[in-house]
Predict the structure.
Amino acid sequence: MPLDFTAIDFETANNSPASACSVGLVKVRDGRVVDSAYWLIRPPFGHDAFLEWNVRIHGIMAADVTDALLWSEQLHDLQSFAENDVLVAHNAGFDMGVIAAASAASFVPTPTYDYLCSLQVARRTYHLDSYKLPSAAMAAGFEDFTHHNALADAEACAAIIVHAADRHGASDVAELATAVGAQLKRVGAPLQPVPVE
């Protein structure tokens, strides 16, 4: 099995995980980046306030998303890009929480994806003082990117997974998860129990 996955990163307008205001996506095939995408998202009503703290972090303001598609309108594009890939994200619980919360707040079904956290992978691959994305990306040889730009962060995440897979001799994401003692988790539909024979 080749090292195929989609790296994903969201920025949010406020503390609500439903307030996604941008997404970055990076498609990796056989360990190489083959495509990327970025777009702004208009958060759903009730989750659309832009807090000064968040704006200071990512630079996206309410005026920037006025003409952007709502979560419910852009989710199809996200799914078309990611296809049936395993998703990877740094501190993946946050990004998968965004998918679930934004879908719930928009009254659309949460898409189902298996995912792996590059933060967990980095902790079990490198010896660093900090495992925040810039530090982990630097350990993977990916430097000088615009942190908190969703596309740049997704590119950094992809670089960590590719580098770690090479280091651990893993040929795919599932093998990498096993090599570092991490679990593939799932957002959306619950994992089906394996029947005992």
